[in-house]
Amino acid sequence: xxxxxxxxxxxxxxxxxxxxxxxxxxxxxxxxxxxxxxxxxxxxxxxxxxxxxxxxxxxxxxxxxxxxxxxxxxxxxxxxxxxxxxxxxxxxxxxxxxxxxxxxxxxxxxxxxxxxxxxxxxxxxxxxxxxxxxxxxxxxxxxxxxxxxxxxxxxxxxxxxxxxxxxxxxxxxxxxxxxxxxxxxxxxxxxxxxxxxxxxxxxxxxxxxxxxxxxxxxxxxxxxxxxxxxxxxxxxxxxxxxxxxxxxxxxxxxxxxxx
Length: 259
Ligand SMILES: C[S@@+](CC[C@H](N)C(=O)[O-])C[C@H]1O[C@@H](n2cnc3c(N)ncnc32)[C@H](O)[C@@H]1O
Hints:
Elements: E1 11-14, H1 17-31, E2 39-44, E3 59-65, H2 68-78, E4 83-86, E5 100-106, H3 115-125, E6 126-137, H4 142-149, H5 152-162, H6 186-195, E7 198-206, H7 221-239, E8 250-257
Parallel strand pairs: 1-7, 2-3, 2-5, 3-4, 5-6
Antiparallel strand pairs: 6-8, 7-8
The structure holds S-adenosylmethionine.
S-adenosylmethionine is lined by residues 45-47, 49, 64-67, 70, 88-90, 106-108, 111-112, 174, 176.
């Protein structure tokens, strides 16, 4: 059986996405309370939108992404970036060392072959005591396992048919191809944190089946569709003889550089 436990002190439990964005905002406010200046923030693999609720905290936001169209949308339409850098997160020269107080990377590392290079760059780009927030699917869950093993055509069909994303597959939109290295999940990230002496401040989990948009009136199409997805996940868990967890899909780690 895979050990997916974290210490009680750091376990933030399983939450939905809006609650996660609120809680991450609180974590950032708490961990950066001593910095009496605007935060230097990097969103690594920024895509089309920022979600963490940082209320009125002053910040200078840099976004890096490899997708020219998604970055252009973020920079010119959303317009919340102070600097936009088109590039590969595995390229250490993209930004200066020790430039950021906070690096946030959501749903990105599972798309990068050799993701450890990107993680090592994040540590180099962070200031001492800086905060790193990583969101990834967990390959020890049913959802994560399928995400890492099903062909890209399934990801595209899932986005279109289950999530109802009519833009899926168009330039500047996901799904992006997945490639799972050992870091993609709680187990691998715990090993990575131990190796690099990163302090684990908090761990949250989310379940893609338990979100505000997956709940609807009893016999609605939404309710029927997501009930079927929940059942499918639990059947997957049973078929794996407990090796794969069906109670969550993504893991979110709030980490701090010790020096
Ligand atoms: C699933 S999207 C997530 C976007 C955003 N973080 C969010 O949560 O909405 C993955 C993003 O990672 C970017 N990406 C993938 N590989 C990358 C790499 N090697 N360097 C920089 N960005 C990359 C993609 O272009 C895409 O915008």
